[in-house]
Amino acid sequence: MEGNFFDLGHGSGKAIVAAAIIGSFKRISGIELLDGLYYQSVRQKDKYLKQSIDTNQDINLFQGNFLEESCDWWSQSDFVYMNNVFEEDLISKIGLRAAAMKPGSWFVTLFKPLPANEKWDRRLTKYMTMSWGTALVHVHFKLK
Q1: Domain residue extents for the chain
Q2: Distance (Å, whole) CA 124 – CA 126
Q3: Percent of the chain with pLDDT over 90
Q4: For a tag site, which of 20, 78, 80, 85 has the least CB within 10 Å?
């Protein structure tokens, strides 16, 4: 997968490091609101970069609210990942932002899917084993 990867609510940064290990993304970014998780993710990123052969990877971590206009993940991303533990009203707002992503983009959510929308095709819904347990994974593809 080429293009830009973005993790909404990147937590401790595990998905960011996993995306970097895959090595096919042009840019890897994440945003986290909570202080402790944000600082932990910065440590994870630094540890990865010290051990990495590819020191030219473009990895960006931000602290803040992913719904703010200044974040603008919806126009920059080709692949978005979100561990969706959010309330329905927040998920609806994320869905509105995701509707502005370009056709051919992918959006992967854990537990809850994106809100139903004619612009997205849910290609896969499957229980998968993670390092911390089992999650229901939803893979969405942007049609138009």
Answers
A1: 4-142
A2: 6
A3: 69
A4: 85
User: For the whole model, what pTM was predicted?
Assistant: 0.90
CATH classification number, 4-142, choose in 3.40.50.150, 3.40.50.2000, 3.90.580.10, 3.40.50.720: 3.40.50.150
Task: Give the pair of three-digit tokens for residue 36.
Answer: 């402790």
Please state the φ and ψ torsions of residue 72, each to the nearest 5 degrees: 55, 35
CA distances (Å), origin 17, targets 6, 23, 60, 112, 128: 12, 10, 11, 23, 19
Residue 55 pLDDT class (50, 70, 90 cuts): low
Nearest to 65 by CA among 28, 38, 102: 38
Helix axes 14-22 and 35-51, enclosed angle (nearest 10): 30
Rounded Cα distance, 29 and 19, in Å? 10
Over residues 73-77, the mean pLDDT reads 90
Rounded Cα–Cα distance for residues 79 and 18 (Å): 13
Strand runs (DSSP E) across 12-131, as ranges?
27-32, 58-63, 79-83, 106-110, 120-130
Q: Using the predicted structure, report yes or no on whether residue 77 has a pLDDT greater than 90.
A: yes
